[in-house]
Every structure is written in C-alpha cells, then in structure tokens.
Amino acid sequence: MAPGDTADPRRAFFEQHAAHWDDDAAAQVQVRARLQALRPQLGVQPGREVLEVGCGTGQITDLLVEWVHPGGRVTAVDFAPAMLARARTKGIAAEFREADICSVPPGRRAFDLVLCFQSFPHFRDPAAALRHMAEALKPGGQVVILHLAGTAQVNAFHRQVGAAVAGDLLPAPEEWPARLEEAGFRMVRCMDQPDLFLVEATLVS
Ligand SMILES: C[S@@+](CC[C@H](N)C(=O)[O-])C[C@H]1O[C@@H](n2cnc3c(N)ncnc32)[C@H](O)[C@@H]1O
C-alpha cells in the first residue's frame, strides 16, 4: 500500500482520532514519567540514529530527540497524515515522514534502533513490518517494541475499543522468538507484566 492508499481501515480510524489524540494532558504526563523511568532499558542513547514507527502525533518523539542528543537523529514515521500533521506543529527536531511499515522499509541500513511505542498490534501484516524494520536497521541494530501495559491488558483494550482495531492483538510472549527470527532478529528479552510489555531483539546479520 503506497502513501495515500486507504485500503487499510486502520488508517481512516487513526485519521479520525487525530484531532483528539492529545486531549488527555494528565495521561500524557504519566506516559512521559513512565518513559523517563524506562529510559535505561530502551537503548535510545546519544549519537544514535533512531526510527520511531507508528509515532502518531509525536507524543514521545521529543523525548527521543532529547535522548539521542548530541549527535543522534530521530526519524518518526506513521501512515496517518492527520497524526503527522499534528506532530509537525509541535516544533520537534525530528523528521516526520509518511510511511506504511507493512509496505516498504523507511530506509535501508540507516538506523541503529527501531522503536515501536504502543503501535505494533496495529500493523496489519506484522511479519512484513518486522522484515521492513530489519531492512531499515544497520548490521547489529536493535528493535524495541514497547507498551505501558501487558499483553492481556493491551488486547482487552483493543477488543473493547472495537471498530478497525478490534482484532489488533499483541502476539503471546512464546510466539515472539520465532516471529523475530523469521525477520532476521534474535530476541534478547521479552517482559510481559500487567503494566509493561517490552520486547528487545538484535539483528543477526
Ligand atoms: C495507538 S497509535 C500510537 C501512536 C503513538 N505511538 C502514541 O503512543 O501516541 C498507533 C499508530 O500506529 C500507526 N500505524 C498503524 N498502522 C501503521 C502502518 N502500517 N504503518 C505506519 N504506521 C501505522 C497509526 O496511524 C497510529 O498513529
């Protein structure tokens, strides 16, 4: 699916929600505090080239920019133009780019780290998404998939939201090693607890 193609119903879903995505200021404060506490575990370090996939309105992109300073850069991609339009109004020193991670890699051997924050279950073709992330990484690069809730909580939430995201589920923890391996990664760890899901993997080749 090229940018502009509306075949994935999730794109229209997130387009519709973009205008109100940032409304809950208190929730955003909490999210940012959690992210700050998790920072040592995320691999977002000074000098690194970071790709954020499914960045939405850029709610955490400014933190990533701060953490890669000095010398690093953040490229943040999403396939919903309205989400990106909001992100671009925030004056964040990142490159915001429209890209569908299930269709094309957003670069080749260009990044040290790919971070998917609260976005992975929405990728309609998770195998293709992982493959494209692998292609975007430099040799030895790292992928981190992060949620501030566990698998059961994330999946229950999406079922409750319904509509285009009702079936957007995080795979069970035991499925991750094989899924990652298929895309060329080796899983380093998988944490799944009620308030945190974190998968970290390294590109093998
Ligand atoms: C739940 S939102 C999370 C946004 C942001 N990370 C946050 O926490 O506020 C998921 C995001 O993934 C994006 N997304 C879904 N499928 C995508 C795809 N195939 N390629 C790129 N972005 C996608 C959506 O447009 C949406 O902005």
Protein architecture, described:
By secondary structure, the protein is an alpha/beta fold. It has a single domain (43-203), classed as 3-Layer(aba) Sandwich (Rossmann fold). It has 7 helices and 7 strands, in the order ααβαβαββαβααββ. It has helices spanning 9-17, 25-38, 61-68, 81-88, 126-136, 151-161, 176-182, and strands at 49-53, 73-78, 95-98, 111-117, 137-147, 185-193, 196-203. The protein has a 7-stranded mixed beta sheet with strand order 3-2-1-4-5-7-6. The longest helix has 14 residues, at 25-38. The radius of gyration is 16 Å and the shape is globular. The two termini are 28 Å apart. 38% of the residues are buried. The site of S-adenosylmethionine has 18 residues, from α1. S-adenosylmethionine (SAM) binds at residues 10, 14, 54-56, 59, 78-80, 83, 100-102, 117-119, 122-123.
Write the SSE topology:
Blueprint: H1 9-17, H2 25-38, E1 49-53, H3 61-68, E2 73-78, H4 81-88, E3 95-98, E4 111-117, H5 126-136, E5 137-147, H6 151-161, H7 176-182, E6 185-193, E7 196-203
Parallel strand pairs: 1-2, 1-4, 2-3, 4-5
Antiparallel strand pairs: 5-7, 6-7
S-adenosylmethionine (SAM) binds at residues 10, 14, 54-56, 59, 78-80, 83, 100-102, 117-119, 122-123.
Largest sheet: 7 strands, mixed
The strand line-up of the biggest sheet is 3-2-1-4-5-7-6
CATH architecture: 3-Layer(aba) Sandwich
Radius of gyration over C-alpha positions, nearest whole angstrom: 16 Å
What compounds sit in this structure?
Answer: S-adenosylmethionine
Taking all residues together, what is the mean pLDDT?
A: 96
End-to-end Cα distance, whole Å, is 28 Å
Which runs of at least 5 residues are low in confidence (pLDDT < 50)? none
Instruction: Identify the CATH class.
Output: Alpha Beta
Number of helices: 7
Helix % is 25-40%
- Strand share of the residues? 15-25%
Q: According to CATH, what is the topology?
A: Rossmann fold
Give the strand tally.
Answer: 7
Which geometry do the CA atoms define? globular
